[in-house]
């Protein structure tokens, strides 16, 4: 537990003293991210030098006790959990302080001491330039050393010191900007180890979330964070999932609904059965996904680095030509201080990180810069219908009693089937149980249940044995004949509905029809994708052709492929690619894995199977189709921002170089303008993009 002391307190603001904040390995970045994750916290600043933490929060939504509790729950990260943000240290500020002190002392010293002090000050820069030249070749450090070395060699002690100060200030500001870009993602990179209240031996005990086991019952109250992924067993609550899914509107959680670790209960109370704990939770998977993404260097990053290295040689060659023509050392110094490399090399990765962070705010995880680049270039998107264009959850649409004279009503039939299916966990069973619950139907007592995997279930009732399942199971295995009802069956199937067949010892009893429903946002999302430059929209469905074509035409798809078997999805994607299309595939099933892999960009829906999520380039954390359009817009605008910054960096530095070559810019002017240009480009990249929704 992290010890602290309250130093000063105002409404909505706490200043605390933390003795361990200055300890080795205990940097402020991780603690700041931990505190910022608390809903209602507006800002956090940790100052290592004074070992203090300043927390600003909204007193209308967050109590000071919640802030202090959050701080008390903090634990230092394990070595493999840390994220290198390049935290600011006193050593970074030391060169700036020394340069300022040197400038203050120079007027007071005699000439020999001025030269000696200047030599001591520029010595590290010269040594760094020589080391870079020997070990890495001609890089920006070599140019800096040449510029400052020329001034010192000519006895221009003020120019050498001021130039060094400007270069150090520019480098410091660049590091601060890079750190800020890393902070955008830091909160996503570390699973939130909130403590858990677990039911053990008939009582509640508070334990670290790492000690929760699968099957444990966890109690979560208002203001508390859900520490594991699980299934709600009891209770009703409003939950904020924005930290995980990007969905800013709180969602209602009730029995049988899924709860995500890292989300916060706004009001109400829940009992949750843990299904994924530790490294298997959604928050931990997000952390691993982002780490992998940051480890990948995109094509744009590699190209920017190559061009930046070329520009160093250009600067060096220009300086040589200027000296050969003018013999003017000051012009040469000015040229040496024009450096393309920083803006080009840093602007692209900062832009990529900003794009990834902005996408995460909208519930979209990008697997690195390559995914952003390829999605920005996509001109064709292929949608697998079920679970993407439609909701992945089924709903009961029809309950048909085949022999009404037998005395069984539709309500009786649904209550009976739901009472048996509530012991199963597949989507059809869940839909039937939910339909009965929505209608407030009573539970029907029954005997032992027998399962036949992937076929059906049977149970013993007071009136005899009841069998539920597929038509194949009931006809081929149980001997029930549903052919007299083919007309009704075909009518329901022609509407794209899935049928559950019910029979008892006296023959067929009824049918329950289910269907996945079209997402409300589907038409608007498809229209928005076209506005974002998508030329072709393609739908793949396993439904009968007539139904698939009716839906596809209604939604305005350019191509509709019906009655597609799972193994043919990847072949369809490859066929489009062979025609020259750059294809994104959106899917969620186990059988979507090959298509997600062969597509230029694979996009997996949040309820997708593990194999689909493992093979995808982009993961949607929020179950909404318009996140696909969000991802496309963010990718396109991020790449546009990177190109704009690239042109600005090249154009402005070229103008500065021209001024240096012509002699219009002195060395100090070159240093000021170059560093200002670099910082402007980096800040623009850090700002990121905004969505127009």
Automatic annotation (TrEMBL):
<keyword id="KW-0547">Nucleotide-binding</keyword>
<dbReference type="InterPro" id="IPR023299">
    <property type="entry name" value="ATPase_P-typ_cyto_dom_N"/>
</dbReference>
<comment type="similarity">
    <text>Belongs to the cation transport ATPase (P-type) (TC 3.A.3) family. Type IB subfamily.</text>
</comment>
<dbReference type="InterPro" id="IPR044492">
    <property type="entry name" value="P_typ_ATPase_HD_dom"/>
</dbReference>
<keyword id="KW-0067">ATP-binding</keyword>
<protein>
    <recommendedName>
        <fullName>P-type Zn(2+) transporter</fullName>
        <ecNumber>7.2.2.12</ecNumber>
    </recommendedName>
</protein>
<dbReference type="InterPro" id="IPR001757">
    <property type="entry name" value="P_typ_ATPase"/>
</dbReference>
<dbReference type="InterPro" id="IPR008250">
    <property type="entry name" value="ATPase_P-typ_transduc_dom_A_sf"/>
</dbReference>
<dbReference type="GO" id="GO:0046872">
    <property type="term" value="F:metal ion binding"/>
</dbReference>
<dbReference type="Pfam" id="PF00702">
    <property type="entry name" value="Hydrolase"/>
</dbReference>
<dbReference type="GO" id="GO:0005524">
    <property type="term" value="F:ATP binding"/>
</dbReference>
<keyword id="KW-1133">Transmembrane helix</keyword>
<dbReference type="GO" id="GO:0016463">
    <property type="term" value="F:P-type zinc transporter activity"/>
</dbReference>
<dbReference type="InterPro" id="IPR027256">
    <property type="entry name" value="P-typ_ATPase_IB"/>
</dbReference>
<keyword id="KW-0812">Transmembrane</keyword>
<feature type="domain" description="P-type ATPase A">
    <location>
        <begin position="193"/>
        <end position="289"/>
    </location>
</feature>
<dbReference type="GO" id="GO:0016887">
    <property type="term" value="F:ATP hydrolysis activity"/>
</dbReference>
<dbReference type="Pfam" id="PF00122">
    <property type="entry name" value="E1-E2_ATPase"/>
</dbReference>
<dbReference type="InterPro" id="IPR018303">
    <property type="entry name" value="ATPase_P-typ_P_site"/>
</dbReference>
<dbReference type="InterPro" id="IPR023214">
    <property type="entry name" value="HAD_sf"/>
</dbReference>
<dbReference type="InterPro" id="IPR036412">
    <property type="entry name" value="HAD-like_sf"/>
</dbReference>
<keyword id="KW-0472">Membrane</keyword>
<dbReference type="InterPro" id="IPR059000">
    <property type="entry name" value="ATPase_P-type_domA"/>
</dbReference>
<keyword id="KW-0479">Metal-binding</keyword>
<keyword id="KW-1278">Translocase</keyword>
<keyword id="KW-1003">Cell membrane</keyword>
<dbReference type="GO" id="GO:0005886">
    <property type="term" value="C:plasma membrane"/>
</dbReference>
<dbReference type="InterPro" id="IPR051014">
    <property type="entry name" value="Cation_Transport_ATPase_IB"/>
</dbReference>
């Amino acid at each position: 537990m992290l010890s602290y002391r309250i130093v000063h307190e105002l409404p909505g603001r706490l200043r605390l003293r933390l003795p361990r904040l200055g300890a080795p390995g205990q940097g402020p970045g991780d603690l700041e991210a931990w505190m910022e994750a608390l809903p209602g916290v507006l800002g956090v600043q940790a100052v290592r030098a004074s070992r203090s933490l300043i927390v600003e929060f909204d007193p209308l939504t967050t109590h000071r006790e919640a802030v202090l509790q959050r701080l008390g729950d903090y634990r230092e990260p394990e070595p493999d959990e840390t994220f290198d943000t390049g935290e600011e240290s006193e050593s970074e500020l030391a060169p700036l302080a020394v340069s300022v002190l040197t400038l203050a002392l120079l007027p007071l010293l005699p000439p020999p001491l001025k030269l000696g002090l200047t030599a001591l000050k520029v010595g590290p820069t010269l040594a760094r330039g020589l080391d870079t030249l020997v070990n890495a070749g001609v890089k920006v450090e070599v140019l800096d050393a040449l510029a400052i070395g020329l001034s010192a060699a000519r006895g221009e002690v003020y120019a050498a010191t001021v130039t060094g100060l400007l270069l150090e200030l520019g480098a410091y500001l660049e590091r601060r900007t890079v750190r800020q870009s890393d902070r955008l993602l830091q909160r996503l990179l570390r699973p939130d180890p909130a403590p858990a209240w677990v039911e053990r031996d008939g009582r509640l005990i508070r334990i670290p979330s790492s000690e929760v086991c699968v099957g444990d019952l966890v109690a979560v109250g208002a203001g508390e964070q859900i520490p594991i992924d699980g299934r709600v067993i009891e209770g009703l609550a409003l939950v904020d999932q924005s930290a995980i899914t990007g969905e800013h509107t709180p969602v209602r959680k009730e029995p049988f609904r899924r709860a995500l670790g890292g989300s916060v209960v706004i009001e109400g109370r829940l009992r949750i059965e843990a299904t994924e704990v530790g490294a298997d939770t959604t928050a931990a998977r997000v952390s691993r996904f982002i780490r992998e993404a940051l480890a990948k260097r995109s094509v744009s990053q590699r190209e920017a680095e190559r061009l930046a290295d070329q520009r160093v040689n250009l600067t060096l060659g220009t300086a040589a030509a200027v000296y050969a023509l003018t013999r003017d050392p000051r012009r040469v110094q000015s040229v040496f201080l024009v450096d393309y490399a920083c803006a080009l090399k840093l602007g692209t990765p900062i832009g990529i990180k900003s794009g990834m962070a902005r996408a995460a705010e909208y519930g979209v995880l990008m697997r690195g810069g390559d995914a952003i680049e390829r999605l920005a270039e996509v001109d064709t998107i292929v949608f697998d219908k079920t679970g993407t264009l439609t909701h992945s959850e089924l709903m009961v649409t029809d309950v048909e009693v085949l022999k009404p004279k037998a005395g069984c009503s539709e309500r009786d039939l649904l209550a009976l089937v739901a009472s048996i299916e509530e012991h199963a966990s597949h989507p059809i069973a869940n839909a039937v149980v939910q339909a009965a619950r929505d209608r407030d139907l009573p539970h029907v007592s029954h005997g032992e249940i027998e399962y036949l995997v992937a076929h059906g279930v049977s149970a013993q009732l007071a009136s005899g044995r009841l069998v539920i399942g597929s038509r194949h199971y009931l006809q081929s295995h149980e001997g029930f004949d549903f052919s007299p009802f083919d007309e009704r069956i075909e009518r329901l199937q022609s509407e794209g509905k899935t049928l559950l067949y019910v029979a008892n010892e006296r023959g067929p009893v009824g049918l329950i029809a289910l269907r996945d429903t079209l997402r409300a946002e589907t038409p608007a999302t498809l229209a928005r994708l076209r506005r974002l430059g998508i030329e072709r929209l393609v739908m793949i469905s396993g439904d009968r052709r007539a139904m698939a074509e009716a839906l596809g035409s209604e939604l305005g798809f350019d191509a509709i492929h019906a009655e597609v078997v799972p193994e043919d999805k990847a072949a369809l994607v490859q066929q489009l690619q062979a025609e020259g299309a750059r294809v994104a595939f959106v899917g969620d099933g186990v059988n979507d894995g090959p298509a997600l892999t062969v597509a230029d960009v694979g996009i997996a829906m949040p309820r997708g199977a593990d194999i689909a999520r493992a093979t995808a380039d982009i993961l949607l954390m929020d179950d909404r189709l318009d996140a696909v359009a969000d991802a496309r817009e963010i990718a396109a605008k991020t790449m546009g921002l990177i190109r704009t910054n690239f042109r600005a960096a090249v154009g402005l530095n070229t103008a500065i170089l021209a001024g240096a070559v012509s002699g219009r810019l002195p060395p100090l002017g070159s240093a000021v303008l170059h560093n200002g240009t670099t910082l402007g480009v980096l800040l623009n990249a850090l700002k990121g993009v905004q969505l127009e929704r």
